[in-house]
Amino acid sequence: MADAPSPDPVVDDLPERAEVLVVGAGPAGVTAALALARAGIDPLVIDRRPGPGGQTRAVWIQPGSLEIWHHLGVADAIVAQAQEIRGIAVHGRRRDMAWLPLDEPDLSVHRPVLLDQPSTEAALLAGLDRAGIRVRWGWRFAELRRPLRAGAHAATVEAGPRRRVVRCREVVAADGSHSAVRAALGLRMTGHTYPRVLYVADLTADLAVERDRAHVLLAGDGAHALLPLPRDRWRLAGTAPACDEDDLRSQATTAVRRLGGDLRSLDAASTHQAHRRILDSFRHPGISLVGDAAHLHSPVGGQGMNLAVADGHAIGGAVADALRGTDRRAVEEAAARRRRAAVRALRTTDVMFRVQTAPGRAAALVRPLAFRGLSAVTARSRTARRVLFRSVSQVPRPGR
Ligand SMILES: Cc1cc2nc3c(=O)[nH]c(=O)nc-3n(C[C@H](O)[C@H](O)[C@H](O)COP(=O)(O)OP(=O)(O)OC[C@H]3O[C@@H](n4cnc5c(N)ncnc54)[C@H](O)[C@@H]3O)c2cc1C
């Protein structure tokens, strides 16, 4: 893992004024801060966590995020640690039943890579540190006073018993799925929660299969994905009808055995429910909502963190343009563009989620046919291969 700068203990020297307040130092907030810094603006970045690190959530990094991070000077540190992926191998009753390549026929961008989220965040934070911006860990956004006048907000932030008021011209709300900024604005996402429970397990295993591909194991109850992480580690994810720790261990043992391997250790396991939710607008006067604060997707298809990164980059750059007066409509336009991208991703991930998790005999019969059909089409047609790559890679299409 790249060394993240060591966190400051909560300090009292929080500035009272900043041009931009970024709430949240996850992938969206740090990418927004890097984009602002590149445009010559020093944002104030706060995060309620005591320091970097935490749960491994996202592991799949799309080429679109690598393009953005390359532009911001942080991609090399991520690629150097990550596992590159060439495609998806699908295993049914027989091994290697279907193959879905994940690259463009004339590849001009990087392939997808896999890395645990704390390592990715550490590399982003190291880039932020090099740009001279330090995250104020331990400070939590508490409430928003109504704009004093157009372009001037006052946000109350707290760290334990300490309370401060920060005045700023713009707020970037990158504070995740339970966004306090979203709540302070009285906004609610529309959408729903999927009924099926998902499990995620990080494990160490000896597996005699190619590490440069994602492995999808088809089963009667859905599809389970086994994704290679650096250093003999794997991410296993799927649907779980029953879900205590013993069930997850036996799920992991079965999946690893199907690929002819041995489970060495189950390092972390959890269950959760996925959502399909989005805000009506990502922009309110002087405030932009990005990443999980604005939209929530199923993890199938690996889009959530990658959309968050693209949101942060677009909004950070647009806020800088607006504050410098080069383009006063930039933020509204960027927010509308990012919402359209999120709507498209909600549709794609919804289809993927339904195909992979639908219960019952009919679905179990259709799933292999769907994967085999897709595999045959992408083997024959360069256009189909390009469409598959473009639909998940988050490499921006011209004019979007
Ligand atoms: C099990 C699982 C697997 C996933 N796998 C993938 C994947 O493979 N690929 C993918 O693209 N996505 C994946 N995702 C989704 C991905 O993790 C999220 O979409 C991504 O982390 C969103 O980034 P973010 O910066 O918007 O929010 P977050 O990462 O949630 O960051 C928000 C930050 O805001 C801080 N914060 C919260 N409230 C406050 C407050 N009041 N004041 C100050 N700070 C605050 C938090 O401490 C946090 O640091 C997965 C999610 C889960 C749960």
Question: In summary, what is this structure?
Answer:
The chain is α+β, with helices and mostly antiparallel strands and 400 residues long. It has 10 helices and 19 strands. Among the domains are: 192 residues, FAD/NAD(P)-binding domain (3-Layer(bba) Sandwich), CATH 3.50.50; 79 residues, D-Amino Acid Oxidase, Chain A, domain 2.
Describe this structure in words.
The chain is globular. The two termini are 34 Å apart. The strands form three sheets. Strands 1, 2, 8, 9, 10, 11, 17 and 18 form an eight-stranded mixed sheet that branches. Strands 6-5-13-14-15-12-16-19 form an eight-stranded mixed sheet. The protein has ten helices and 19 strands. A hairpin with a 2-residue loop joins strand 13 (213-219) and strand 14 (222-229). Among the domains are: 17-59 and 116-189 and 279-353, FAD/NAD(P)-binding domain (3-Layer(bba) Sandwich), CATH 3.50.50.60; 196-274, D-Amino Acid Oxidase, subunit A, domain 2 (D-Amino Acid Oxidase, Chain A, domain 2). The relative contact order is 0.18. Helix 1 runs parallel beside helix 7 (304-323) and helix 7 (304-323) runs antiparallel to helix 8. The model has no long low-confidence stretch (mean pLDDT 89). The protein is 35% helix and 30% strand. It has 400 residues and is α+β, with helices and mostly antiparallel strands. It has helices spanning 27-38, 63-71, 75-81, 117-130, 180-184, 245-258, 304-323, 330-357, 361-380, 382-393; strands at residues 17-23, 44-47, 60-61, 83-84, 87-91, 98-101, 113-114, 136-137, 140-149, 152-159, 162-173, 190-206, 213-219, 222-229, 233-239, 262-278, 283-284, 287-289, 295-296.
